[in-house]
Protein 1
Amino acid sequence: MGLTLRSVLTALVSLVSLSQGISLTGPRTLLVVEDDVKAQFQTLISDLEARGFTTTTHTPKSTTLTLFQHEERVYDNIILFPTKLKGLGPNLPSSSFLKHATAGGNILILLPSSADDNIPTAIAELATQVDIFLPPKGFAVVNHFDLADAIEPEHTTLLVDLPSFPSDTRNYFNTGEDKGAKLLYSGAGLAVGSSPLVQPILKAPRFAYSYDTKEATSFADDENVFTAGKQLALVAGVQTRNSARITFVGGADLLADKSFTKIAKTNQMSGNRAFAKDVTAWTFKETGVLRVDGIEHWGEEFGKEVVNGDVYRIKHDVTFSVALSEYSYDHFEPFVAPADDAVQLEFTMLDPYYRIPLTASSSALTQHKNSTTYSTTFKTPDQHGVFTFAVNYKRPFLSNIHEKRAVTVRHFAHNEWTRSWGISGSWPWIAGIWVVVVGWIGFVGLWLWSKPVVAEGKGKKKQ
Amino acid sequence: MARKAARATTPEPSAVRPTTPNTSVETAPKATTTAPATTTTSSSSSSTSTVKLSANSSPFAVAGAIWEKYQKDTPQRTKLIDVFLGFLVIVGAIQFVYCVIAGNYPFNAFLAGFGATVGQFVLTASLRIQTNPANKTEFSSVSPERAFADFVFGSLTLHFFCVNFIN
């Protein structure tokens, strides 16, 4: 009875979330913000609500705030706005953020743009735990060679190009209409560690650097420069192993209302609003989420009569197909891998015996019309045992795919070996055998035929 | 061919003895007698040989004498066996040389083909020993018919094995 009620409830909940058609994690969004700061981010919040997110606002010190109830996530997404406070409230320790991410929730963290503001200890701890390094209080990024505003003496407002990535990485952060738009940025910046889970999303221009504005008033030397150029990340994204996402924005003004304006220097609209949409969409899993729609493999032996069978034979052709689709805001669409990237199949027994690229196939798997079918045909190795078809596709900004299917690879049955006459190399020796046999038959015939002569000779000699 | 020559030389000492060739079995200990020794005694028994050999006879003359002796004293069936043995040696040598030149893949085929000639040679040689009238005393319990039946059975088994082994 309880089970039925629960399944009905689950169906109802999934129906509701489907009808809203937004984030795959869920729409419940927590804004940790004070009222005066919230006023600076009205456009960001209304854009989120327009995309179907339901927002709940709490101040950092709120005592009624709780992230977990009955060991379930209360919120799907969290946005931590900058605050003047040195620490967040007792209900928001750094461990609660990791627990939230472990349970699959996403977090967007906006660090203060002003060098005078504090970064709460809990956020600094969280950053260290995910291999992102924040400069101490008082640092700011400057670029003296590309001024956003000529009248600003400190040069702390930067003009930054929209992100670009190598051709093997999908770019989810340049989807706005104006691809050449500049971003307005001010803040301290981040340094990104070597963890493969962390990816810089937006990097500083070449001549920008982050330095200590309090210590170095006249010039900056290496004592008080945090990091510089392309090493300096302005926005960085973390995707945990369970594909939850944590994004750090080095300067909150990047997403604030005041940046969604015309840039004085170029007299063009800044790209900030579109970029804010891209960053929130990626963080809250509206983009870059992959789904495996189906896996099919079959062998040469039975063809497609036996799909996903348990047993294959060594040195036989096997075809493997996987159907992949990608979430894009409110629907799944066929996933197309970047040009220089490849979805790969591993055929593994302890170690991969093969690692081969899967090619997008024209024939879709029958029941999955709305996905790309990646497939390949290969010959099983000359080794029997329990093998695994594994698709291990882990790429920056894409949710992790690690699919495994174990099958048995058997050896030749006794009647499956090539017969001697099927191997042209053995023909001389086959001929040898039959020459001996025919010669032997001739010999036996002559022996029997020659008997009387011998008997006669013997008889004569005996006499 | 080498075997033929060896066989042919064996009766040679007996040829110069006063006894008949049929009893040459008893001369087995003397089989190692060297050719010069033979030729030195040949003058005393020249009446039994059509070719007269002296101490300084040419090798060709010796070989001719051996050949003539073989032709004269070897039974028809033994000659037939010798021809078949020569045939097997040739077929086996061809297969072996082919294996050396062209490679031994598939190896079981080579083993079967070459083994067929070797095995057949052994069986045929056994038949020759058992049916040679010169060896009659040693194989008094084995009649030539019995030896031939054994030979046929053994050969058929060998052929069956080889054809199976080559698959």
Protein 2
Amino acid sequence: MFDHAKTTLPAAPGVGYKPQHYSDILTDPGSVSWLEIHAENYMGDGGRPIAQLRHLADRFPISVHGVGLSIGGETALDTDHLTRLKHLCDWLNPASFSEHLAWSTHDSAFLNDLLPLPYTQTTLQRVCDHIDQVQDVIGRRMLLENPSSYLAFAASSYDEPAFLAEVAKRTDCGLLLDVNNIFVSATNLNYDPCAYVDAFALDQVGEIHLGGHDEDQDDHGAPLLIDSHGREVADPVWTLLDHVLDRAGPRPTLIEWDTDVPDWATLAAEASRAAAALTRVPA
Amino acid sequence: MTQTEFRTALLDPSQPVPNGLTDSAGRPAGKRFSVYRNNVAVSLKEALETGFPATARLLGTRNFETVAQGYLRAQPPKSPVMMLYGDSFADYIAAISSLESLGYLPDVARLEYAMRQSYHAADVTTIDPAQLAETAPDALNRARLMFAPAVRLIRSDWPIWSIREKALNADALAPPGTAQPVLVTRPHYDPELHPLTQADARLIASLLSGAMLAEAMTRAPDADLGQVIGLLLAQSALTDIDVEDAT
């Protein structure tokens, strides 16, 4: 029914593509081997965004990362949006397609954020049904990303690694492991990030994400980390990456930097740091 | 707790944080929920600011913040494709009575939205100007012009071209006392703006609605047909000329 390879991205560094880096990437990609785009930014009919993407796709494997499908939503998936996603994947033929364990649309309102859901039998079934639908429509295996969490649900009956492992088992989707999200969630919800990694279905991981976070405090003065993607990857997140790679081996590893986007040299230096982490572990 | 409750509290800070959301010790989520509230409010406001830079400048930072927060609560995006967000922003502004003194503002917002639509419009092959030159004059009267999807016309009774320029660049000339409807074209990848006379705007509006050249000229007798056709050809605004058979 669909291609069962988890991904055809290389087990090397990639970066989240920003249009301001277009010329620099083509001139000197450094250790960057592949690019990731946000699907929703390439759903126009034409113009510069589509033209640049076509050109980049001739040079680099492209990962399509959706931010608007609302897979964790209580209501039915937006079939118009699914059709747009299929159209993009059909013409671009990306090396990977991924989305989030989150919701963003409710009552036809798109809230432009990745919102959390409790982990229960009911939400498990709904997420699996939605992923089955997505994979059927786009005809590809997708990767599902672990979220960053700021709060917990009293109603949850699964922990996150167990929930994601069960989704992967039931739907045959792959997983996208965001190491910064683990660190952010573990700090915010007071658990051991290494134990999370050890419990994760690492054999299903087709891609790793790294990004920067901001530091704040909750009402009780406890640390509250915000997944802002607006700075360098923090040192403890690099350490956690080593812990992941020691267990999983090298995987396609992405640097995400979406706000206060730096110059190409700064972003390429982050990719080089990921390259060093990847070459440290045997394939 | 349902997503309806979550969504309601998310968009309305006066609502309490929904039950069942906690920290790791089981205490109510409190400020932790505000992270999501803040993400939604800031990201949507920034999307509007990016999409409507001149409108934002004309309103000023604080007024724009108020208008944007009102709009995103009343009309959150209907689609995850954020390049489409703001299609009703001009109408929303037009309905705010306290902004009546800024009568030009809705038209400036319409112009900015049209530029975004133009930027993302489909790429097409445009006509060779020679094709028009080779068309016999009597046939030309029966010609309909086919426009590129990136072409937009914003009719206005205000000098919106100059108002937008001045909003974005303090050194620009002060707006004139006459109306400036604007034609948006996209000869390559960047939309270009052309201030028009009311007569030329009327002519282009007729042509865009599918009128034949002779008929469009009847509706806009003061328009400068040669200048308008020259502009459309130079700006790669036309995809075809469709001449109706003589009867």
